């Protein structure tokens, strides 16, 4: 099927006028139009979504303030001190241990002496 040249001119002029009007409208509206060749009819597609990443924001964290606790007052516990210090108790205990050691030493010394006398007299 062939079109007459005059009709082809009118169709081309109409498409150019429509394209000019739609181009102006699409430039203001932020949309796009496309006409595909070798495709049946006119293909209109939406523009790809545009994602703008927000600029990074760097900030110092807010300072945290704590209210100090209310002072707590308490009565100190009563102090009971036994008569005689612990140092004196330990000193007395050590003195008793030394006396017991001396007695043991003297007993062994006496046994040695008795043993020596017994065997010297037999010779």
Characteristics:
123 residues; single chain; mainly alpha
Blueprint of the fold:
Blueprint: H1 5-29, H2 86-122
Counting DSSP E segments of at least 2 residues, the number of strands comes to 0
Low-confidence stretches: none
Distance between the termini: 162 Å
Number of helices: 2
Please indicate the percent range of residues in DSSP E strands (runs of 2 or more).
under 5%
- Helical fraction: 40-55%
User: What's the overall average pLDDT, rounded?
Assistant: 78
Class derived from helix and strand content: mainly alpha
- Shape designation: rod-shaped
Characterize the main sheet: none
The H/E string reads HH
- Computed CA radius of gyration, to the nearest angstrom: 59 Å
Describe this structure in words.
Helix content is 50%, strand content 0%. The chain contains two helices and no strands. It has helices spanning 5-29, 86-122. The chain is rod-shaped and about 165 Å long. The mean pLDDT is 78.
């Amino acid at each position: 099927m062939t079109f007459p040249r005059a009709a082809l001119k009118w169709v081309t002029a109409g498409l150019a006028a429509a394209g000019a009007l739609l181009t102006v409208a699409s430039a203001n509206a932020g949309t796009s139009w496309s006409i595909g060749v070798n495709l049946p009819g006119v293909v209109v597609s939406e523009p790809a979504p545009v994602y703008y990443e927000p600029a990074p924001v760097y900030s110092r964290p807010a300072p945290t303030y704590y209210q100090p606790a209310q002072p707590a007052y308490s009565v100190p516990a009563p102090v009971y001190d036994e008569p005689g210090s612990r140092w004196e108790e330990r000193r007395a205990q050590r003195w008793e241990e030394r006396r017991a050691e001396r007695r043991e030493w003297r007993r062994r010394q006496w046994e040695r002496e008795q043993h020596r006398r017994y065997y010297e007299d037999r010779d």
